[in-house]
Amino acid sequence: MTDLISVLAAAVFLVFGVDRLVRSRAAEADPAQRYLAGLAGCMGTAMLFNAPAVVGTLSGEAGLDTPVLLITHELKTAGLGFLVLVGLAVKSPPPGPRSVRRQIALNGAVLIASAALFGVADIAMVDDELTVPDGHRWALAGYNVLFALYGCWCLLVLTRELARHARRMSPGPLRAGLRLMVLSAVFGAVWTLWALADVPADLREGRQGVGEDAVSASLSVITAVLATAGASASLLEGPLGTPVRRLRAFRRFRALEPLWSALHAQLPQIALDESAAARRPGLRGAEFALYRRVIEIRDGYLALRPYFDAGVPGWTSQTADLARDRRAVLEAAMIAAALENLRAGQRQDGVRRERDAVHVPSVVVGTVESESEWLVGVCAAFTSSPVVARVRSRVRSARAG
């Protein structure tokens, strides 16, 4: 079973590496694609050599087992160096050539140090295990510790840059892909740290098994699948992503129902289509229905402008709220107060003084996905925020008084 898992993970990495290599040859290719190809090629080849069946076959060949073990380890270390280069490639603003050269030099130094520790350890293969003389156990332990710590540092650099890049992107498949890559890096860190499990046996017995155990092999598969899915997320922008986009649009359409209904009840003219099909679209028409719903909500905002209350920003700033996005709470409070003023027939444009600051609803620049995501947050605050409920009650009380 471990053989199958190891070979499967290696195959995923190698196929992915070939795909990235082909893409990297396109005109003006992103350098991150070349680094991803290098990463996948190194890790896939290393995992293939490290599969128990391959290790068992090579152990029977005199003089091959120890060099193959060193080559496998060096390939993994080189692959970790490519992770940092990927992180540098997505950094904004991009670093200069000096940063890339510095990372290449650091990776080379770690490769040399690993090979030196391997040589000092005087490793020999005995019955599918590597063993070292009693006085050289520290070198074997250092060999594993260096790999684990350097690998975790590389993954930390990559995770930080990918997370920053994902936060700057608009909602969509590419941002989802980056988040999958971040998750892959997290599992990769756990996989890399698993090398430390061999350190106690290195120091105590001067021996450790070769090849991937079940835990390591499983972590490698998860890492490979998440990395491949994340880096291939651009496919979701094409026909393959149509079902996902339709489902997401349908869910957002439904999520905007409370806000839209509140606006439509007071401003029925915002509805572009009053048919039952428009109110209950299927998955096939969900994307167009969401686009229309966003337009209708924004039309409602425009119609409410004369009823915006200048006191709302002050009322919300004085009230604590646990909502993550206070701007969404403020916008929801402005809409709730304006609807109450409209219901009471109390326009505010003639009452406001020039110095009164009226909050203007946020304008989301980008795609319908970006706009709808923002409005879903506003709708959530509109229906559930205690701040919005208090603002609504305050305006009602003022009108009643």
Describe this structure in words.
Helix content is 71%, strand content 2%. The chain is mainly α and 401 residues long. It has a three-stranded antiparallel sheet with strand order 1-2-3. The longest helix has 32 residues, at 137-168. The model has no long low-confidence stretch (mean pLDDT 77).
Q: Distance between the terminal alpha carbons, to the nearest Å?
A: 76 Å
| Helical proportion, percent range | over 70%
N-to-C SSE string, H for helix and E for strand: HHHHHEEHHHEHHHHHHHHH
General form: elongated
Total helices: the number is: 17
pLDDT average, as an integer?
77
The assigned structural class equals: mainly alpha
Number of strands: 3
* Radius of gyration using CA atoms only: 29 Å
Major pleated sheet: 3 strands, antiparallel
Strand order of the largest sheet: 1-2-3
Beta fraction of the residues? under 5%
Uncertain parts: none
